[in-house]
Write a structure and sequence with these properties.
By secondary structure, the chain is of the alpha+beta class. It has two domains: 12-150, 2-Layer Sandwich (60s Ribosomal Protein L30, Chain: A), CATH 3.30.1330; 167-311, PurM-like C-terminal domain (Phosphoribosyl-aminoimidazole Synthetase, Chain A, domain 2). Helices cover 32% and strands 22% of the residues. The chain has helices at 12-25, 72-89, 109-125, 176-185, 192-199, 207-214, 226-237, 252-261, 265-271; strands at 34-36, 44-45, 53-60, 93-103, 129-137, 142-150, 167-171, 218-221, 240-243, 278-282, 293-299, 305-307, 310-311. The chain has a seven-stranded mixed sheet. Helix 3 links the parallel strand 4 (93-103) and strand 5. The chain is globular. Bound molecules: adenosine-5'-triphosphate (ATP), thiamin phosphate and magnesium ion (3 copies). Residues 86, 89, 220-221, 223 line the site of one magnesium ion (MG).
Length: 322
């Protein structure tokens, strides 16, 4: 493998490490919560609450995305969105994002700047800045994003607070990204709704703090699959959960794609990840916040995650190395 490509502005090897950092950071306006932005050994960000919520998710080319399926801007948006969803799932509001980029020397500089455009686009949706990062050489493109958040004086909403009798509710799309993956995997590019949902999710960020304020007892974002992620929540809380399929909306779009591909759309809804909907439990007397829909009930310990009262037959979600 060539160690370097010919010097020039077209590739990351051509512009070099510090040229690349410049291309990724110059001309980006930081919000006022960024007290010291990129350029020093570390950034300084305001932490109004005094506590900092911190999370990291890594995205790897050909594992989490393909450039044949997604534009660099879509990938950048997705990389930030999956992290901001974890901040929202704690009931917090994001404050800043850091970006680790590993890529081969022949990566076009324009691919990186489009990635960064996508990251900033998603960051702007949540009114946060990209305050720092790192760039390194690697054989494949990898994005490692860290997001920080603020709890606004509230306790964090953990995975472990669900209690028997609570209602289980979701906010956001389910099954769309999985349908999009099935479409792209068959070599199609439409319908664009589900395909774009796979390319970059649209997590309902504001629904996290809203759930916290409404008294959510536990919360998680659906990254791996509804049943798998409710399984994490149930395990952490020491409870069982039953999901009622008649409460899950099956969008006509998913029905149509399922029919076209000969696939069961309810399986995408129950086990497809990557839409980063929020799933939470609330005391039964709670008026659910806007956008939240009841989908099930928290049961006594040791009942596992069931669907319509029965154990689910098949994989409940994505797991790396399986
Ligand atoms: N290498 C690691 N070192 C320390 N903690 C880790 C490591 N990997 C994961 N964790 C922690 O384990 C917990 C579960 O990780 P996981 O990656 O499943 O969470 P997630 O980001 O919510 O899910 P996803 O990766 O599917 O988006 C998190 O609290 C995470 O910080
Ligand atoms: C090219 C390609 N192949 C497969 C998939 C499906 N996929 C990858 S990771 C993941 C779960 C979330 O990841 P993580 O747990 O790391 O957050 C899913 C459903 C994809 N998006 N792109
Ligand atoms: Mg998560
Ligand atoms: Mg995550
Ligand atoms: Mg996962």
């Amino acid at each position: 493998m060539a160690d370097r490509t010919t010097p020039g502005g077209d590739t990351v090897a051509g512009i070099g490490e510090f040229g690349l950092i410049g291309a990724m950071t110059e001309g980006r306006a930081q919000p006022s919560t960024t007290l010291l932005g990129p350029g020093d050994d570390a950034a300084v960000v305001a932490a109004p609450d005094g506590r900092v919520v911190a999370t990291t998710d890594v995205l790897v080319q050909n594992v989490h995305f393909r450039f044949g399926w997604s534009s660099p801007a879509h990938v950048g948006r997705k990389a930030v969105a999956v992290n901001l969803a974890d901040i929202a799932a704690m009931g917090a509001v994001p404050t800043s994002v850091l970006v680790g980029l590993a890529c081969p020397p022949d990566t076009e500089t324009s691919v990186v700047t489009q990635l960064v455009d996508g990251m900033w686009e998603e960051a702007a949706r949540a009114r946060v800045g990209i305050v720092g990062g790192d760039v390194v050489r690697a054989e494949e493109l990898v994005l490692s994003i860290t997001a920080l958040g603020d709890l606004g004086g509230r306790p964090p909403v953990t995975r472990s607070g669900a209690r028997p009798g609570d209602v289980v509710a979701v906010c956001g799309r389910l099954g769309w990204a999985a349908a999009g993956l099935a479409v792209l995997g068959r070599g199609f590019r439409s319908p664009v709704g589900v395909v774009n949902a796979q390319r970059s999710p649209e997590p309902p960020y504001a629904a996290g703090p809203a759930a916290a304020i409404a008294g959510a007892t536990a919360m998680i974002d659906v990254s791996d699959g509804l049943l798998a992620d409710l399984g994490h929540l149930a395990l952490a809380s020491g409870v069982g959960i039953d999901v009622q399929t008649d409460r899950l909306t099956l969008d006509q779009k998913l029905v149509d794609v399922g029919t076209a591909l000969g696939a069961d759309p309810m399986r995408w809804v129950l086990t497809g990840g990557e839409d980063h909907a929020l799933a939470a439990t609330f005391p039964s007397y709670t008026d659910l916040p806007e956008g939240w829909t009841r989908i099930g009930t928290v049961l006594l310990p040791d009942t596992g995650v069931t669907v319509d009262g029965r154990p689910y037959d098949g994989e409940t979600g994505w797991e790396h190395w399986r």
